[in-house]
Amino acid sequence: MASNWRGVFPAITSQFHADQSQNIEGTLQHLEQLIEAGIHGVIFLGTVGENCSHEYSEKLELLKAAVAHVKGRIPVLSGVAEYTTALAARYAKDAEQCGVNGLMVLPGMVYKSDARETITHFRTVARATPLPIMCYNNPVSYGVDITPAMFAELSDEPTLAAIKESSENVRRISDLRNLVGDRYTIFAGVDDLVLESVMLGAEGWVSGLVNSFPAENRLLWDLAEAGKWLEAREVYRWYMPLLHLDTHVKLVQYIKLANAECGFGTETVRAPRLPIEGTEREHVLGIIRQAIATRPVSTR
After folding, report:
1. b/e map 36-58, b = 16+ CB within 10 Å
2. Which structural domains are found in the chain, ordered by start?
3. Residue 145 burial (CB count, 10 A)
4. How far is CA 95 from CA 61, 87, 138, 266, in A?
5. Choosing a second label site near 271 at 20 to 30 A (CA), which of 20, 49, 78, 297?
6. How far is CA 272 from its chain centroid?
7. 8 A C-beta contact, residue 164 and residue 134
């Protein structure tokens, strides 16, 4: 199944009530704010969406609600982050039944698979469903690297449609294009490398900070896509202190704190994550509030 995925796809946060129970209504309210700001697609249950902090049944409940809410206006994808290949394949089938338009598949969680094991994992999940798949390559966070050579080997799987490239090595984009041409749609997966990634040929951006600054995020994307590099650079420099928050181990807490400051939900996370406090909190709030005070455009 082909995809025409392009543009900004938020890795949307999952909202929780104060008791850490799932708040689907709050998540959908946030989603609607992002749609109104002009996102091109959305990914539920990625890292920022706290995939592994959800019960299996909660994930499916959220996806069904999201699909019903979106009504086909934008593509809806689900992250696939399970401990075993069999469970990832099962989840892929169940997500398809929920009506999603595609999947963002991670390697198996916890175990650091070698190249042969990683390729087998992605092939198995790809063959479990006809849905188009974005392969999430994040060796920094998950310890498994899907190299350009491995993507070349996987190129015979027709449903592997896109790559979220989060290796923090923008050379990978050129290496992928040189090796496999336009076989995959490449998405920038690291917020504070997005402008460099677009210049090198990325056609999409899986963003975290878009959750909190959707209008400014769209402005940067539109300038970059139009090749207005000097104007894009100025917005990028304003945005950079915020974008750095996306590369920290506490990116979920930081982004949710930004959400709360910008009126896009609460900062509640599920344990073992806890809201940040003390000097760390004041430091991050300072970054967020400085950005709000100097933002290049007004939010909608």
Report:
1. ebbbbbbbbbbbbbbbebbeeee
2. 7-293 (3.20.20.70)
3. 17
4. 10, 12, 22, 26
5. 78
6. 21
7. yes
